[in-house]
Amino acid sequence: MLLDTAIIDEMRETLGDEIYRGFVSRMLAEVEETTRSLENLLAASDLETLARAAHRTSGSAAGIGAKALHALLKDIENAARDPSSAHTLPRLVAAIPARAEETRKALQALVP
After folding, report:
1. DSSP character at residue 44
2. 14-72 confidence digits (pLDDT tens)
């Protein structure tokens, strides 16, 4: 599931569409910035900082109902913390931009 519509509906009801769209915009900008950071941290083999950065941004994604993006960032965090899974990090980090774009399109369709 790409989006958690229960979270989205609750936020829209509580905050209104305009404020929710602002949160979405900030979260997507954060994801873009985090992606660049994760790429640099991966190149430097700084997996602990990489895990923390992925964790922080996964929380932002979860908070706005971006379920699949949240799951991808949690997978990155978990892989960075598990030496036996670290080899999957390049593929996972490379998947962020496409997942963010899918999320942006789905949210834009849901909350025009």
Report:
1. T
2. 999 999 999 999 999 999 999 999 999 999 999 999 999 999 999 999 999 999 999 99
As to burial, measured by CB atoms within 10 angstroms (0-12 exposed, 13-18 middle, 19+ buried), residue 13 is exposed
- Residue from 73, 30, 39 nearest 54 by CA: 73
DSSP string, 8-24: HHHHHHHH-HHHHHHHH
8 Å CB contact between 54 and 76: yes
Residue whose token pair is 């706005």: 64
Number of Cβ within 10 Å of residue 24's Cβ equals 21
Whether 4 and 65 have beta carbons less than 8 Å apart is answered as yes
